[in-house]
Amino acid sequence: MTDSSVGQISTWRAFTGTLKRDLLLVFRRRSDIVNPLLFFSIAVTLFPLGISPEPEFLSNIAAGVLWVCALLATLLSLDSLFQQDMADGSLEQLVISPHPLFILVLSKVLVHWLVTGLPLTLLAPLLAVMMFLPDEGFGTLFITLLLGTPTLSLIGAIGAALTVGLRKTGVLLTLLILPLYIPILIFGTGAVMATSNGMAVGGHLAILGAMFLIALVMAPLAAGAALKISLNG
Questions:
Q1: Which of 22, 62, 186, 223 could form a disulfide with 131 if both were Cys (CB 3.0 to 4.6 A apart)?
Q2: Which domain holds residue 123?
Q3: Which chain regions cross the lipid bilayer (predicted)?
Q4: DSSP of 161-197, one letter per residue?
Q5: For the chain, what is the domain count?
Q6: What is the mean pLDDT of residues 205-223?
Q7: pTM (predicted TM-score)
């Protein structure tokens, strides 16, 4: 077995080891899973109560409401992405480990998506029924969230890494990340509305897919560099 093969196996073990450790920690702190889902459900439920219960009105705003609430729920959970590791000292071990830091960051982002983005994606169609989303939009809503929520987690990791050393990160993290979330919100909502109106959605989905691929390549590298800056600073 060559040295490169040994290195690849070692890196893969580091990736899976970080994944298993973070999943175990998250399931010990179940509030990290419940809070975003609870916020998402309550926020969507408040719109019919606070604006109008008319089905025609709700069907027109359903896509935007669901996407905005999913985005805000993701923002709510980003604060804890690296904070626990910073508190117990394991973040420094990740940074100085011989394994590529972006691989370890990618593992942590994957955990964040599995416990936040994926449940939001699965819950959204149920709430869409309450919002009277047209039947044609359900499939597109699911696909756009399946493409968009991992992109939200990847981009959010950069902001979480930049603010990990600060005491109060909520507002600053939101100000850093929210402008980068706007294109995802626009094309995600646009795709669902286009489907509901009988229009083609291939362009919207292609752009969402492109943003996901770009974030998948660039965000772990940027987040890793941001972690080094935060720890050294």
A1: 62
A2: 3-232
A3: 33-51, 57-78, 110-133, 139-164, 171-193, 205-227
A4: HHTTTSS--HHHHHHHHHHHHHHHHHHHHHHHHHHHT
A5: 1
A6: 95
A7: 0.91
